[in-house]
Design brief:
The protein has about 100 residues and is mostly beta strands. It has a single domain (about 5-99), classed as Jelly Rolls (Sandwich), CATH 2.60.120. Helix content is about 0%, strand content about 60%. It has a four-stranded antiparallel beta sheet with strand order 1-8-3-6, with no helix packed on it. Strands 2-7-4-5 form a four-stranded antiparallel beta sheet, with no helix packed on it. The radius of gyration is 13 Å and the shape is globular. The mean pLDDT is about 90.
Length: about 100
C-alpha cells in the first residue's frame, strides 16, 4: 500500500466520496460557522453506513486530520455535512491500489 493518499474528493454538504473499499488517510474540514459538523460514514449513505466519527468545530477555522496508517473503510466513504456550506475534502487509497 502506498504510504500516501492517491485519491482526493471534495464535498460541499453531503455526498458520496467513493462506493469502493478504501483506506481513509486524511480529512480536511472547513466549517462555515461555529458548531458546524460533518459525519464520516463507512458506507454509501447515512442509512446503510456506519458512522466512524463526527468532526465538530467550535470556531470558524479549517482543520486537517492526518490518520497516519489510515482507517479501513470496507464499504466506501460518505460525508454528511450539517449544510451545503460545510466543506470536507477526503484523501484516500482504494484497496485495489493496495494489491
Amino acid at each position: 500500500m502506498p504510504g500516501y493518499a492517491t485519491h482526493y474528493r471534495h464535498i460541499s454538504g453531503n455526498g458520496l466520496v467513493t462506493d469502493k473499499p478504501c483506506i481513509l488517510k486524511s480529512i480536511m474540514f472547513t466549517p462555515n460557522a461555529a458548531n458546524d459538523w460533518a459525519d464520516i460514514y463507512d458506507g454509501v449513505d447515512t442509512t446503510s453506513g456506519t458512522k466512524v466519527c463526527r468532526i465538530l468545530s467550535a470556531v470558524v477555522v479549517s482543520w486537517c486530520f492526518n490518520l497516519s496508517d489510515g482507517i479501513l473503510m470496507g464499504r466506501g466513504i460518505y460525508i454528511d455535512g450539517l449544510d451545503d456550506a460545510v466543506e470536507t475534502t477526503v484523501a484516500y487509497v482504494p484497496l485495489a491500489d493496495c494489491e
